Amino acid sequence: MSYKEELKAKLYKDLELKCDLGSEGISFKNPDIFKNLDLGGEYLEQVHVLFDYNTDSHKAYDLPVAFYTPLGLDVQFRANKKSKYSIDYINGEFILFNNGEELFPLEFAKRPNYYSKKTSDGTDMRTVAIYNGHGVVFVAYSNECALRDKGKDCLFCNINATKDTYGENQCISWKYPRQIGETVAQAYREGSRHVTISGGFIPERREVDYYLDVAESIKEYTGLENFNGTACIGAPTDLSVIEKYKEAGFSTLAINIEVWNEHFFRAYCPGKEELCGGRDHWIKALEYAVKVFGRGKVRSNLVGGLEPKSDTLAGIEYLASKGVIALAPGWVPNPGSALEGHNSPNPEWHLDLAKKNAAILRKNGYTYEELYNAYAAPVTLVHDIYRIEDELLPIFSEIKEEVLV
Question: Residue limits of the Radical SAM core domain (predicted)?
């Protein structure tokens, strides 16, 4: 076995740990330990847009966004006081433990400079666009969904609950096109190269007009005609409006179907079922989007764990064959959602799904760059599998030829 093969085997062990940490979260005895971490200075603090993935809320103190395994996989920090994994601050280092057994010191994600800047109207840029790592910024133009007023929220979603919990603390509010354009431009000047625009459910006509204004603002402030942006939208009743997003300058489109099985779709996504034409219309919208944007430039999320694995894989297989990049990150029973307190499948289930998800995409010829350009946070298990198999992680470039067997 070559050194690189050994390294890949070790990285897959790290991937198992990352998957376990994503399911279990991390506990800590006292939030005061984070006073020893320069959150909001050198290190990236959590800013909640759209969703909260912490089992335990933390309005009174900041938490880090992510840390790294020793071989360089990034792991999202999710607070859960019941987790078997814990961290403590010992002798000047944050240490990760598993049931009291020391694993390794933690290196946390660094904060981008634009987090300390303001837009021309005085808005903190960190509340306009969060940094999702690997040069990707994410804008949630609205942290509320109109489906709640209709009693049709997706059962797994906590977008409205997140605003209720953190809104006052983190200035969660409607984002204006100029704010977005200025913030994205600043992030791009610092090295970012992809942006996703998303938000809650709003009336279709208003959504189209807003996205067009945002695209124009980003182009104005970045000076880029092709700003490598993803518009994340609901399936429009009039499919022809999809062409407007392409004309506006978005290079990729996301229409998240969430659940593949038609019966589960109806149960979990009542608003999408009743107000957006139902599951079959969502599929038609995705297929139409591929005709407009091209193969590999349309993305759809499924929530891994809400339905039998065979159904999710059937959806990934079908969509991939039609030109859609479909991923199924593991379901986290979000606090404030209708399914809060329920259990997601075990980590082994999710890791197996991710491996099969990646295999389907690779079989259909999708590249890492296509996954990167279509996704809002390129830190999923599937992204990691691509980075391992294609030797894209920094650790591979650190290998000297003379040490290869």
Answer: 131-369
pLDDT per position as a tens digit, 196-241 = 999 877 655 678 899 999 999 999 999 999 999 999 999 999 999 9
CA distances from 369 to 97, 174, 248, 375 (A): 34, 31, 22, 10
- Specify the DSSP element, H or E, that contains 301: strand 298-301
**Domain with 345 in it:** 118-389
Residues 6+ apart with CB under 8 A from 212: 244, 248
Q: How many residues does the chain have?
A: 405
Mean pLDDT of the chain: 92
Give residue 276's pLDDT.
Answer: 77
Helices (H), 155-203: 159-170, 177-189
Inter-CA distances, 140 with 13, 51, 320, Å? 34, 10, 27
Do 282 and 356 belong to one domain?
yes
Tally of structural domains, the chain: 2
pLDDT at 205 (0 to 100)? 61
Q: How confident is the model at residue 403 (pLDDT cuts 50, 70, 90)?
A: very low
pLDDT tens digits, 240-272: 999 999 999 999 999 999 999 999 999 999 888
Same domain, 294 and 339: yes
Do 159 and 220 belong together in one domain? Answer: yes
pTM above 0.70, yes or no: yes
Phi/psi of residue 45, nearest 5 degrees: -95, 155
Is 351 strand, coil or helix?
Answer: helix
404 in a structural domain: no
Shared domain check, 222 and 175 = yes
Asked if the structure places residue 399 within a domain, the reply is no
Cβ atoms of residues 112 and 119 within 8 Å: no
184 and 258 in a single domain? The answer is yes
- Picking from 108, 139, 156, the residue at the C-terminal end of a domain is 108
Distance CA 198, CA 195 (A): 10
- Count Cα atoms within 13 angstroms, Cβ side, for 231: 29
